[in-house]
Design brief:
By secondary structure, this protein is of the alpha/beta class. The protein has helices spanning 25-30, 43-47, 50-57, 78-90, 102-117, 172-175, 180-197, 205-227, 232-250, 256-268, 272-288, 298-311, 317-330, 347-356, 367-379, and strands at residues 14-17, 37-42, 67-72, 95-100, 134-138, 150-153, 156-159, 167-170.
Length: 385
């Protein structure tokens, strides 16, 4: 295996995955001399009683819950962040635990920043110090940047190694259930993040190990979990894939499919996972046509295994990756539209997004090329873009 001359990789989070993972929280906080966390979660998590599962799991411990806030909005809001900073101080908390959605984690990270920087979130420009202990508990609603080094509040985004959670908990009690649509959406969003992290930039053996494992977990378990959302092994595997995809995403340039999906989500409210999945094959087809880069053929091995990989001629492996992803996406017709047009999106919005993407990602792409990818995803045409 060829090793690039230079690469870098960082992941601050310790992961605890498996049966009774929640029960490890008191010990983990004790390592940071903390015992009184502020719990931050969202309305959906409360409706699904994840807060009660959390409390019950720790009922026999000496952990003191400083406060539990269960009303985080669908998107992190600065007003809520400021309110929670005051709550943290008033209750004498010493750590933070985020449960559930991306908005819960974004809110938790922003609270942490304001407490440590002693500034309003909107005034913080750089993060250059260790923050207070932060634990993230994945649930069926955790996705996108939950396990990354990114925080977004009111459309303002910061990125820093210090923004990774210190500990990530994956407990079967929190990751089973939900709908088929939810399973497909979050799994394919994680697949988009991991595939694109392995497509752009230099070789990085550390990041590749996360990428290939995430791909394999998703490919082997998404269909099982979509049919039976109570299947423990598959649920834990997908949650681990979400975690690993987030880490890989943090250590690689932002991909084209993800960047387009993120902007479409911002402007339309459409599910970022659905949009990313629809765009991904078309973005990969474009990148595979570039002479200076392409899809690493080892990605195929993570999707179909060593035997299928070995039987595929080397010159066909990149194309096979795209075909496999398209076939996977097409296997969920009830949960995922075949193209962007079926999402009832306004065409002019997509044209405007194509114009801003080149300035938002590191990879060299023109607005015209972005629009060509969107056009292909709009009608699901398979021509080379």
């Amino acid at each position: 295996m060829k090793l690039t001359e230079q690469f870098k990789f960082f992941n601050q989070a310790k992961i605890i995955s498996g049966n009774k993972g929640l029960n490890n929280i008191p010990v983990e906080l004790d390592d940071y001399n903390a015992s009184k966390p502020l719990i931050i979660t969202d309305k959906k998590s409360v409706e699904k009683k994840f807060d009660k599962i959390f409390i019950k799991a720790l009922s026999d411990s000496n952990l003191i819950i400083g406060a539990l806030y269960g009303s985080v909005s669908n998107e992190a809001k600065i007003a809520e962040v400021r309110e929670l900073v005051d709550l943290y101080i008033a209750r004498g908390c010493d750590s933070i635990i985020a449960i559930g959605s991306e908005s819960s984690m974004n809110t938790a990270k922003a609270v942490n920043l304001m407490l440590c920087e002693k500034k309003d979130f909107l005034e913080i420009k750089d993060v250059n110090q260790n923050l207070k202990p932060l634990i993230g508990i994945l649930t069926i609603d955790s996705r996108d940047t939950f396990t990354t080094d990114i925080v977004t509040v009111d459309a303002r985004t910061l990125q820093s190694n210090y923004l990774f959670p210190n500990v990530v908990i994956i407990d079967p009690r929190m990751v089973k259930g939900g709908s088929e649509e939810s399973v497909v959406e979050r799994s394919l969003l994680a697949l988009t993040q991991s595939i694109e992290a392995g497509t752009y930039g230099v070789n990085n053996p550390m990041n590749d190990s996360y990428i290939y494992s995430a791909n394999q977990y998703i490919y082997e378990n998404i269909k099982v979990l979509s049919k039976n959302r109570q299947e423990t092994e598959a649920a834990v595997a997908i949650a681990n894939a979400v975690y690993m995809a987030g880490v890989a995403f943090s250590n690689a340039p932002t991909g084209i499919a993800y960047a387009l999906a993120k902007e479409i989500h911002k402007l339309t409210g459409e599910s970022i996972g659905k949009v990313a999945a629809i765009i991904l094959p078309h973005a990969l087809r474009w990148i595979n046509g570039k002479k200076d880069n392409g899809i690493k053929d080892k990605i195929l091995q993570s999707l179909i295994g060593i035997e299928g990989y070995a039987k595929t001629p080397s010159e066909k492996r990149s194309i096979m990756v795209i075909d496999e992803i398209e076939n996977l996406i097409k296997s969920f017709p009830k949960s995922l539209p075949s193209n962007l047009k079926d999402l009832k999106l306004q065409r002019y919005i997509l044209e405007n997004i194509a114009n801003i993407i080149p300035d938002k990602i590191e990879y060299k792409i023109t607005a015209k090329e972005c629009l060509a990818i969107i056009d292909a995803a709009w009608s699901s045409e398979k021509e080379k873009v």
